[in-house]
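Pinned message: reference record for Cyanophycinase
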Amino acid sequence: MNFARFLSSISLGYLLLFSASSLAQTLYLIGGSLKTCSSQSTQNCSKKVNFESAAKRQQLFFVHDLTLNAVNEKWPTHNTQHKHRTRKLLKAIKSKMLYSKSALIAAIKQQDSYLYKRWSNEEYYFVFDMLEVPVLYEQRRAKEQVLTQFNNEPASTEILNDIVKTLKQQNNAKLLLSTASSRDPYESADFYQGLFSAYGVEATWFALTPALAKAISNNDCDNLDIYRNKLNNVFNRELVYPDLTAQELALCKKGIDNLTQEITSAGGMMFNGGDQSLTKQVMVDNETGKAFPWLKAIQNRPVLIGTSAGTAVQSGGPNASGQVPMITNGTSLSALESGAFAKAPPKQNCQQHGGCDILPHDALTYDKRGGLGSFNFGILDTHFSERGRTPRLAVLLAETNQRWGFGVDETTALKVEKAVNKFSVLGKQGVVLLEKVSKYSFLYNFYPASSEFMLNPNVENFAEIKINGRVGHSEDLISDALIRERLKVFCTGDISSLVNKEQGIKNNELIFRKLEQTSCELLGQSMKIENLLMKINSLPKAKDN
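Predicted structure (C-alpha cells):
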C-alpha cells in the first residue's frame, strides 16, 4: 500500500477532486536561501567579481541635526523615556562621516547597549530608517547589481534556468516581481529585478505593496507614506528610494483597473521571502477579510514563483479535507508543547520588547482562511529540514485535518505542473511529503533533488505492518535540525525503529518506524524515502480563537 508513489498516469477522479488546481499553471515553490551572487552578497560569488562602479554594495547611514529633529517630531511610540534617551544617544554619535549598518550598530551599542536591547521593533526600525541615506553614484541612486553567472551555488542557477525556460514558453514572458513580503519592500526591489537580467526575460519590480493596496482601495494615494508607516512599520523611504516610491505613487494613481490589467498582461509573478502575513495584505484586505479586485488576476497567472514566505503564502483554497490553512509562525518544539493557534502571529521579537499577548513568541500560528490559494494540495512549509520543521507541519496537519503537508528545503524548489499533476524537485536538497494517516500517525516521504512524484488521491485503509528489529534512540534531532541526515542513515541500517527525545519536552516522543511498505533508494548522495511511519505520542488541542 503506497500513499505517495510515482504514478504513470492521473485519474479523472483526481482532477475532479482538485478542480481548483486543474489550471495549466506552473508553480515554483522555493524553500528559501536562493543564494545568488550580487554586489551586496559577494559571499555567494564563485570568484572575485568586478562589479560596476555604480553598483550598491551596502546601506549607508548619517547621523545629523535633521535626524535629531525628526526623532522629536515623529517618534513612533508613546515611550517618551526612549525618545529622550535616543536623542541623547544620537547626539553622542553624530558624525560628519557615513556609517555602514554594522558600524552604526557598534557605535550605538558602545554608547547605550541597554537602550539598543530595549527598543521596540517600531522604535528600532524608525531609528535606522530615519538615519538611512540614499547611496548615490554620479547623482543617481546606486542599485544592487546581480550577476547570476558567477553564482557559487549551482542549485540556485539550476532553479533560475528552469523558471526562465518555463516563462519563455508562455505567450507573454513578462514577469512581475513582488517584494510585498518584506518590511521594507523597496530595499530588495533591485535584487529581484536584477535576478533575471542575464536571461533575456522582461522582469519588472511591481509596486504592489501593502501600503499601495490599502491606499488605492481607499482612493487615498497622496497618503501612501502614512500607510507605509502603519502597515509596514517603514519610514523615510521616499528619501532613500525616491524612484521606487514615485513608481508606487504612479501605479496607485492610475487606479484599480489599470493595476489589474498590469497583472493580467504578465505571464508570471514572483513573491519574495519575508513575512507571508505581509504578502497576504496585497491580496486580501486585512481589516475586512475581503479579496482585493486583482486577486483573481494573480491566481490565474500561468507561472507563479515564491521563495520562503512567497512559497508559504500560496497555501490555501478548498480540497477534499477542507480549507487549506497558511502557516504563519512557530517552532516545532513549541508546536509539540502547546499545539497550534488559529490566530495572528505574535509580534517579532516580542519576547524582548513585549507585546506577545497570550502567545509565546515561538507559538505555532496559522491563518485558517489560507493565503493566495494557488496551491490547494495541502499545507506548505519552507526552510524545512534546516530548521527542524517536520514536527510543526505534522502538528498543523493533525489539528486542521489536512491530509498532506509539503516541506521544501533551502535552495530547493518544488515545481508543480498542474496540467499533468506532476511534482518535481529542483535544486540542492529535497522536499518532505507528510501524509496524515491517523491523528498522531504520518507517513514520511523524502524526495531529493532531480526526483519526481505524484499524489495518490485514493482513500485507503492504512494497515501498519511493522518490521521487527532493534530500536534506536536519539536526542534533540528537532532542535539540532538533524532529522533529514539521521533518517538517511536509519533508513538503510538494521534498526527498525528510531525514538527521539528532546530535552525540555516532557512525555513527547517522535518515533520513526519502518514498515513493509517503506522503501529507501540511494540517489547519488541523497536518499529517497517513501512510507516511513512517523508517530507523535500526543498533541495538545488546537486553539481556534
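Pinned by admin. Summary line: Confidence is low (pLDDT under 50) at residues 1-22.
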